[in-house]
Fold this protein.
Amino acid sequence: MMDCLLAFIVLSYVTCIVNSASIESPPHNGTKLLVKVGNNFTRECTGTNMDLVLDDLYWTKDGVKVNAKQIIEPRFAATNRYSAKLVVLKFALRGSLKLTLFVTGATLYDDGVYRCVISTDTTQYIQSTVVIQEAVKSVKLYVDTGSNSLNGTLQPVGSSLKVTASTKLSVKCEVDGGHPKPSVRLILDDNGVKKELEKDKARTIDNTTSVGAYPLAYQTFYTVIHHENLAATEERNGNYISCLAYVEGLAEYEDKTQLDIEATDAPQLKNCSNDRNAYASENDGYHQFQCYVMSKSAVTITWTFNNKSTTIGANEEYKKHYKTTTDTNQDTEKYYRTQFSFLQLEKEDNDVYKLTATNSHGSKSHNFHLIYLGDDRPTTTNTAGLVTYVVYSNNTNITIDIGESSGSSPLGVCSIVLFLINMLMATLLSL
């Protein structure tokens, strides 16, 4: 008995005079550990020069003790996910201990700051932060026009949003959940070039809600960001507006819509053919009017004639006599080539033919004149060495065509002038 008492006194004395216990600093000391919900994680520390009787290693979470040696404190034990293992590495008057904390099936409640502490010197510890990651629950994009958004009446959008050019859009991105706080952005994607839309700080919402009791508690996040007065210009037709949200280390989630912007321009007519002086004997292909219709939105094309009493559409035939043809070319400018053809030319075709192109923003018209000159074209008279000339007339027109020949003489010119005067006189008398 005296031997045991002596040994105890010696041991106590040595304990007092030797250096105090310390904790080795592991690589993860002061670091941040990212853990996805549902995964397992461990924290480990080693104490050296410890009194194996009096000293103890234990872990704390957010300042609350988790274990005493291998015994888990009740509030943590109740989760059935915490356990600890204590191993003696060196057994002597002062030995070394390794303490490992195990957490299985991590939940958001396990998010926090973990410390390994020596019971007899709480100023010594190692520390690491455990961040539990959970993806956002929902991402929703809202877009509206006008001032409705100011009253909170924005509506969710589908994969496409049809709006009129020059409209001002209000855009809202709503994100529920995510841990830690997710990054949320509004993006305008212009043919692959992505631009972040500026947030309206006055209308940004960052709500946090605490769940659970300390130290087993966590925060949920609800985020809303706005962008006002996004111009729906024609150049942005086909662009995407996206609401993007992600948690660090996890996949990105988004909700997006494609802008279908209807142009506000009235149609334009370009490269329209000239008026026609026509003979019935000429080939049919010559008697044709053509024009290009430029329209960025849906357009209706009509032809009107017979003193504006007859109208036919873009691809129609009228009494086997007239035919219209309209070809479309869906490129960036959306132009349409429209033609009015005379299948059989008659005297009654001497008329004004009106092309009209109409869309939801206006209309544009062009008049073509067909002047019927007769059933047969006069025979051209050729006089060697003189000027070539043709004189013909009908009830409403007198026309003289004069062309050049290989040579001329003063006498020839005078003869031509006299001949022309005689022809004109004869023509006038016949009227």
Summary: Helices lie at 2-17, 74-77, 410-430. The mean pLDDT is 78. The radius of gyration is 47 Å. The first strand starts at residue 22 and ends at 23.
